[in-house]
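Re: beginner question about structure tokens

> Can someone show what the tokenized structure looks like for a real chain? I only ever see the sequence side.

Sure, here's an example I had lying around. Input first:
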Amino acid sequence: MHNMLYPNTQKNKQTFTIGLYRLFASVLLLISCNVFANINNVNKVVNVQQLSQKFNHLITHIKKLKDTNSNAALSKLNTASNYIEKLSIIQQITFYKYQSELYNDLAKFKLSKQSANNGFKIASSLQTPSVLVVALLYNRGFAVESLGDLPSASEDYLTGLDIAQSLNDQQFIAQGLINIGAIYYQTEHYKLSLTVFNDALKIANKLKDEDLQGFINTELGILYAYIGEMDQSLKFYRTAYQHYTNIGKTAYAVNALSNIAVNYQEHNRYEEAIKIYKELIPNIKKMGNSEAFYNLYMGLSWSNLRKKQPNTESAYQYLHIAEQYLPDIERHLAKLNFLIDKSYILKAMQHYDEALDSLFQAEKLIADQDKSTDNFDYLSIIGLKATIYRALGHYEKAYQLYSEYTDGYLEIYKNDRIAAVQDVRIRYESEQAERQRKGLKKQAVLQSLELLKIENSRQQQKLYFLLMALVVVIFAWLLHRLARGQQRLLTSSRLDNLTGLVNRRRLMQLGFKRLKMSQIQQTPFSLLMIDIDHFKKINDQYGHKTGDNVLKQIAVIGGGLLRKKDVFARFGGEEFIVLLPNTNKTQAISSAQRLRESIANKNWDNVNNVTISVGVASVDYKNITRKVNKSQIKAELERLIKVADDLLYQAKAQGRNKVCS
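And the corresponding structure tokens:
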């Protein structure tokens, strides 16, 4: 029986063994898969931990770097954008918090707002409030405030302050109070601004936080500048500078120095302001902040214009440099304010046409609903236009604008608190608080009565001053007309202020008379249209003063070559027109060539060479017997000017320094 069963038993044993091997292999495979999976998971965990540590190290570096070089700090921070999704929620919010803050430091407010919004999307998953959310709210608030949206900024600041108070975070409570105080002084609520600033200052002093102390002193400096207390403002700016210097916040210290320079300008200490601005240039270059560059060069421009011995050329050159940074400036009303500032400088240089052009551009930027007498920018435009029209001899137009300008200021001071009253009120608030703390209520009541007396007195003085200013303007206008006499007024309205040549208005009057006489006498009449070649390049390369000298010299050269009966006039800018009565086409071309050659061959001071292009237009009434009326003569003159202008551009197209007829 054993012999008969043996073969089957062997077979069963083999089957069992194979199955056992297969089972063992499966177990090994399963174990190895689990091991590899665990290893992979471990690697992932290790990788995330490494990225987390890397990010934390990066933030530590950013905190130090941003105080001295915001541009470099932002570049470093943005390297984390490659792995931000692998970081924790808190770390992702931290990334956007610093990114929006750095964008604000660099005056890139739209990007700051966008970055803060990205942070809010992630923060929405947080179960409890966080100071990171407060920081994002403050960052976004500052961005929209700088873009001109004060209501949205105020909402962000108040929301952030509520969260900070719920967390009892004193540092962020102080920051929120400072932010809200800034909104208050921008909306002329100076008393409220001072109140919250004082609360913030108490917290900053208690914490002994020099960063906060620098921040609050900066804002107090701005508040006191708003109300005209420049000495007090300067003290706060200097204190802010010291705090920021103590903790190595170079960028903020630079900002404090800029504020000090602006304060010097307000004190008419322009040389000191220029010195500070020039010292700031290397530091601002390191910062790479377009807005800081813009403010720097605008400051240099104004200081050179207003100093005791004005340097209008330097003022214009610095203005031109500042304009290069204007496209990068996102701050509200930056372009409008630049155009107004540019007009002031051009007016000082007696470039009245260009100044008026800038003012017209500025006026277009002001919405119709803002063109009211309570808009200081609009009033500035009106006042400056009035001054320019007066300089040009347009006295009636100047008088109308002066009246509107004065009425506007009267309305403002009628409805609002004047700066002097605000100063007294703020002093009173501070002193009253101190007395109440000491329990001296009686003195507080007396001070209150004193305040009311001072306030009423100052208001009456200001209104009286403005009324007198209006009377003086009217009287000065009348006196000017009576004293100078009609003849002088007539002369000033006919001549160009810079060259002494006939101006455009008088040219058209004389052209009409000369052309009419040529028609009556049946004689030829010619007209030269002249333009200085590459005049803009002369202004840009050598300055407006040199450009003005070129215009004057050409007037002298032309006056020496022309006949007494000819009329040499400045048509506008670098264009001139010569009226040549009783002159045919051949003679006109000869006169144009003499003038062109004299200018081209002149040895010019400070300029390599000056050339002109000339267009010649002629009409001969010898064989024209038709009668022409007044309107036809005017049209004929305009046609001749148009023909000469077309020929002038033909001369330019042929290479300039040519005469075309």
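Each token stands for a local structural state, so reading them left to right follows the chain. The chain has five domains: 23-168, 187-267, 269-330, 427-494, 504-660.
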